[in-house]
């Protein structure tokens, strides 16, 4: 399937290095955008607690709704890395770390592509991948897992192209991945179809032996994924997200891609279909299944668009070499590898130093003033919107809900949504009674805000474009009585 066997290994080029530096530089320039996810706050807070205590989470300590319930952090290593980076350089630390990780992922993708394809084809695929993945460039554990995911997939695909099983040292990647992010389960799942591709393309007499080698590798990969502080529980915990059922649709990143408006995903898919129709491209059956699987994942859950962006080029690289062969010499191929590595290191260190020295990185102001208003009142049981959990955790205020959806479960998530959206006002009152709510922190557009404005014994003490704060008065009556709209205006 690969052309390398005919022409020999292509000469090394600096194209991957240039791509990595370009991505790293661009992300540093747009660094604040990577701090837009409120979950970043609790990710760093957990990392700090791990460093301070020397132990990993076993139970929830951040919420009052699930206080003491079993909960483990399968992303503990990424959280520790973020916390260390933050302690060393403030917000510039996590930004630089995330930018470096994403840049490495793209450099690895380019390294795979340039072994097979013409430079122009590499650039087109690189730009499409960057455009697709860019909305998910955030300071979160999945970003640190990106280069591991790319390297793992590239290693499996390369082994399949050679008609061999992967070398055992690649198992270290699975162990690292399992400690960085729960998506390692996807890496395990990839082993099956890629093994099938290798076996089907092998000579008949060697298929059984090759299949057995892949089976051994798969079993060892499964064992490697259990080499975490939580053991095999990390593998079991990964399924909790998938067990959320209908509650997944309440989380933006888990919703299907929205095609009601023209977007980058649609543009790239249409471009891909156009190229296939124009060139008459064909792919081996298993590669078709792999590609369709990646497309399905991306369409079903928007968060998986990044997986499609990074892995589809790797899956397609060798087959596409038939139509887009390497017709030009590798860019700057005559440069010595050591010179390239040294120059790249100098550039990356310089860029990072400038970013840290400037110290201009900070998350959006968000609900900082609203949280300050809550702390001034000394409240301890705040009913908050889902997206505000990270801010409260960072401020040391117990939350009703936050981004750890696997902790709260499907039933709680759906009940919470019914309360906040007033699909059932009685559910809101029930939640407030059950958890003895003494304040709320909600988005202005949340339907529950208008009802809280009319509740006797409750008052709005703060409002801005980002958040509204209500607190319960000390003399609030028992139960919930709704005032008329006229009395509220007066």
Mind explaining what this structure looks like?
The chain crosses the membrane at residues 12-31, 76-109, 121-138, 144-161, 168-194, 214-238, 307-325, 337-356. 59% of the residues lie in helices and 4% in strands. With 490 residues, the chain is mainly alpha-helical. The chain has 2 domains: 4-351, no CATH class; 368-489, no CATH class. The radius of gyration is 25 Å and the shape is elongated. The chain has a 4-stranded mixed beta sheet with strand order 1-2-4-3. It contains 21 helices and 4 strands.
Counting DSSP H or I runs of 4 or more residues, the number of helices is 21
Counting DSSP E segments of at least 2 residues, the number of strands comes to 4
Largest sheet data: 4 strands, mixed
Write down the domain tally: 2
CA distance, first residue to last residue: 77 Å
In terms of DSSP E residues, the strand content is under 5%
Given helix and strand content, the structural type is mainly alpha
Estimate the helix proportion, in percent: 55-70%
Outline type: elongated
Helices and strands, in order, run as HHHHHHHHHHHHHHHHEHHHEHEEH
Unreliable parts: 1-9
Q: Strand order within the widest sheet?
A: 1-2-4-3
Work out the radius of gyration. 25 Å
Task: Report the average pLDDT across residues.
Answer: 89
